[in-house]
Amino acid sequence: MQGFYSKLDSSPLLGAGLGGEGAPVPLSLAVETEKAQALLQTFSSASLLASAGLGMFCVVADHALQLSVIQNHLWLRAALDNATHGLVGLWSWSVVIGLRKKSDLYEVLLAGLLASIIDLDHFYMAGSLSLKAAVSLPQRPPLHCSSLIPVLCLSLRFLMWIGRLKDAWCSLPWMLFISMATHHVRDAVRHGLWVCPFGNTAPLPYWLYVSTTATLPHLCSVLMYLTGTRDVISTKHGVAIDV
User: Fold this and answer.
1) pLDDT score of 121 more than 80
2) What are the residues whose beta carbons fall under 8 Å from the beta carbon of 78, sequence distance 6 or more?
3) Which one, of 85, 95, 79, 84, lies nearest residue 61 by Cα?
4) Which band of pLDDT confidence, cut at 50, 70 and 90, is reported for residue 36?
5) Is residue 37 a contact partner of residue 47, using CB atoms and an 8 Å limit?
6) Per-residue pLDDT, 234
7) Does 197 sit behind a cis peptide bond, omega within 30 degrees of 0 on the bond before it?
């Protein structure tokens, strides 16, 4: 635990913090307190406001994409639609981790990039760089199979364990989850979710898409807490993820 100081500390004492009246607080108690604070602040007013803004952005962006000036130009429509996927993924991850330091900005940009590049499988499936061919496929491309989300995230976690990557990377599978899940949920308004091997669900009602997108970051935060990801980041790097 070297180098870790609780937010309850007023001076860096090894193995203990200071309570409200100056009494020593065991480090384990300080850690548990921070964990509880992080979980509660997942639903803080700032976090809820950010997720509400995310839902509003989805509505505004989707309505803007319906403008005739955009619909009449295939490349413009595809570019803006993909950019919206990226911004939704970026915004969602920023709600999960908060923007507290420069490295957080890099993380949210990476999340946005991951949410956008999923659509490259359209070109792979088409076997061509033709946008017209890519958007008129007879079936959905492989990365749009929602059953792949847990498979890819768990596989990434396993590879990280095999490679003994540093704890700083422990949130990467969750970032991948947010990026893919937000992309799939947004696409599901038109096509439903493709759940292999069971086929496609009915298209999601628009209100369900918006509400699901707005709540996914909070669900991810809670799951990160339950699986200990937040604990690893907090105790190894002195960072409390609370948004």
Assistant:
1) yes
2) 131, 135
3) 84
4) low
5) no
6) 53
7) yes
